# Entry
Amino acid sequence: MVRVRFAPSPTGYLHVGGARTALFNWLFARHSGGAFVLRIEDTDRERSTDEAIEQIVASLRWLGLDWDEYYRQAERHERHLEAAESLLRSGAVYERDGAWWFRVPEAGATVVHDELVGDVRFDNDQLKDFVIRRSDGTFVYNFVVVVDDVDMGITHVIRGDEHLNNTPKQMRIYQALGYPMPLFYHLPMILGADRGKLSKRHGATSVLEYRDRGILPEALVNFLVRLGWAYGDEEVFARDDLVRLFALGDLNKSAAVFEDAKLLWLNQQHMKRADLDSLVHLVEPLVIARGRVTSEMWARVESERLRVGANLLRDRAKTLHDLAATMEILFPVPVECEDGAAVSETQARLMRAVASAIESLSPYTPETIECAVRGVLEREGATLKDVALACRLAVTGRKAGPGLFEILAAIEPATVVARLRAAHARLSGAGEGGS
RNA sequence: GUCCCCAUCAUCUAGCGGCCUAGGAUACCGGGCUUUCAUCCCGGCGGCAGGGGUUCAAAUCCCCUUGGGGACGCCA
# Structure
């Protein structure tokens, strides 16, 4: 039975590097039908905070990484003390200045068998005796991690590269306690664009920041898993695919740079594939948060209209915020025109004609709208190019967007007609002294 | 400084001795489609860090150099 754990220290938010470590552990557990344990490593009472725990939990939940067991390391103090006392009795540990020190022999070497990196040899003379229990009575990471991993039956320790140098110390503890060792996998780091340690100056590093930027969790998961793992030439993976295909043997051992461009592309890909109702549901609070559409207005628009609109608009959005911005036009709010081409008097007249032609259309569909508009154009001797931009601008406020007939059909006819007439009045009214 | 790890296009990667005059993806640049933008499709640009070996044959194995990263806490 596979048992793995993710063991963050609650000293800050969950960053994308930690999230990827958690993801690999979770994928391996789910792929193998094993257990995924979340263990909060809060033995440093100075730096651990409850807020950090809440942030980490919220991040994992948002990513969809569910755990089967949950532990707080600080709550296992009695058990740690018991293990440490046995080492004190056996002489592997001695007390000095109130702290408990683990004795490391100077001769020989300790070889770490890492399943990813291979055998790594550390000469023991580099290892010095180290503290396992502070003088305040609390225990130190290198000791408790071993006791907990053994007690929790962890079979595979999959963790960040920075722990490779700690592993020989931990191995000595496994040996002193007479415990069997798990398999070790030390993952390469995620770097910033300058190949340095990923930090704030590279942009967002917190998982929750990506949520707030309108990234879908499945897109972040897809992006992170591809930092160090590949399945042939495949790029876009649904969560189920990952669980099915993931294998530790396919992990890469070189560090990867985190770059936003591909994440945004993946986000678009996942938005294109997303269930429409879910997408509409996700974008609702974002639209309302923009301040122009109220929740009452949202509730009044038929859900089918929202689905159709979201479907048309999602091909043009990299993030949920992009989608929210364009979804606004589906509601009866004043249109704010971006700077556009000048609209001629002819175009203004045509818009009025279009408004009348579609005013009482039934059914009101892209096909019937196209038919009506083309009828107007034919009578007026104009082409679609003559009115498309003007109508689009009048109705959506933008120069670019979905096909004209599709987007007109997605908006309530009364709103469309009102916007066309308002634009006509604004344009021709100026010449007639205003009205 | 000491120790450890890593090294294929700008970036993510495929490659696990012959299938490689190195494949895919993002980004970028062209073209197609279209009422516009996007999606989509087609094309282009672009890489095995350098040097030694081993081998009939090396991106793939070994060594050195260089470069990058990490660890050296009574942090995790």
Remarks:
- Confidence is low (pLDDT under 50) at residues 431-435 of chain A.
- The first helix of chain A runs from residue 16 to 32.
- Residues 157 and 184 of chain A are 5 Å apart (CA to CA).
- Chain A is about 50% helix and 10% strand.
